[in-house]
Amino acid sequence: MIDRTQDIFGLYPERLAADTAYGSAEMLGWLVHERGIEPHIPVFDKSERRDGTFERADFTYDHERDLYTCPGGKELRSRQIAYKNERPLVDEHGMVRYRASKLDCDACALKPRCCPNAPARKVPRSIHEGARDMARDIAKTEAYVTSRHQRKKVEMLFAHLKRILKLDRLRLRGPNGARDEFHLAAAAQNLRKLAKLIPAPTPEPA
Questions:
Q1: DSSP readout, 147-159?
Q2: Predicted structure pTM score
Q3: Strand partners, 125
Q4: Transposase DDE domain spans which residues (predicted)?
Q5: Cα 47–134–146 angle (5° rounding)?
Q6: Domain boundaries, the chain
Q7: Helix intervals (H) in the chain
Q8: Phi, psi at residue 71, to the nearest 5°?
Q9: What tens digit of pLDDT does each residue of 63-121 get?
């Protein structure tokens, strides 16, 4: 869609607003690193824990040293030891796992709140986490609030098309038929809006 808009209209967006369905790490990484578009999108995050143990957000990431620091002040690294045959850091899901030292975890008073059922704590980090952090920072700005309001207006138009104008399925065949249906539906929406702007006639006195 971005390519078609650029080819047909010569427009290229500086920002893109969407709902959480588009907030995956891969999508955010593609927008930021490959397209240079600001993602005004809620981050899809499943790192929240419900067992009371520390979440990933409780660990501080150091970009320069490429490591995490746990609430107890210990460091988690992507490699704790050097292997004779180097193992890949990134798994098939695009995740890098930062591991704490077992010695540090065994002596830590916070272990029951951190990794009670594991010898040491591991923290996964996506290779697109930088783009996710950027999306989180954007979500705290006024520009994001504006984008969210604009997105809601567009979503309401589509909801109106489906629920009020019954455009929940296309009845005309082919791309041309779909285009004609959407044009007719959009015209109907515009007419409804214009009708609200026309003042109602005042009744004549009897």
A1: HHHHHHHHHHHHH
A2: 0.71
A3: 96
A4: 69-195
A5: 105
A6: 56-127
A7: 2-9, 25-29, 102-106, 111-114, 129-138, 142-163, 174-197
A8: -60, -20
A9: 899 999 999 999 999 876 655 566 678 888 889 999 999 999 999 999 999 999 999 99
